[in-house]
Fold:
Amino acid sequence: MFALNMDTHPRACRLLLFVCTVALLAASLSAVDRTGPLIAAGASEDTKKAVEGKGYHIALDEGWTADFWFARALATGGNGAAGALYPDLANGEFVGVVSFPKGSSDFRGQAIPAGTYTLRYQYIPQDANHMGVSPNPDFLLAVPVASDASPGENMPLQRLVSLSAKASGTAHPAVIALAPANANLGVAKDDQGMTIFTVELAMTTGKGKKIGIVVKGQATQ
Structure:
C-alpha cells in the first residue's frame, strides 16, 4: 500500500489535502438524480403526456430542492428576436414542468410558493422597463399547473404574463432566467455566482439541445 509521509513530503500532502477539499466542496454543492413520472395533482392528462416519463431531482446543499420534467420534444419555430440566447424556441412555448416542494424564489427575488408549475419560454424585450434586468433576455415563466392545461398550444404573451402572476402573487410574472449552457450537464456555478442547471432537451428535429436554467441567483437590480 502506498503511504505518504507528512514529514518527508509536506508540500505534496498539502496539495493532496487541497484537491480533496475542493472535490468535497464541489460534491456538496448539489446533486442531480433522475426521478419518476409527473403525478402532480392539478396537472392535466395532456400535460402529463407532454413531458418525458422521467424527471430530474435537484438538491442543493442549503436544502433547496426542485423536480423538473421536460417536454418530450421542443418545437423549433423560433422567436425571431435579435439577441435571443435560444432563438430556436418560440414565445409562449411549453418547455416543461417544475415542482418546488419547499417553495422557491424567481429571478426578481419574488417568492414562489410550494407547488407545481408549467414552464413556458418567453423572450423579454430589452426596452426601458426591462433593460439591465438580466444579461440574457430569455426566460421561463412559471404558471400554476392547474391553470395551464394545454401544453400543445403556444400561449399569447398577455395571457402568459397574467397567469404567471398567479405564481408570484404580485403584478409581475414569476420569471426563471435562462443562461448559457455549461460544457457539462448537471449543476454548477457560473462566473457571476449563478447556479445553473444544464440539461439536454429533445427537439422535434431529432437533435438534442443543451439549455442552462438559473436555479439559484437573482437580478442585481
Q: What stands out?
A: Residues 31-216 form one domain. The radius of gyration is 20 Å.
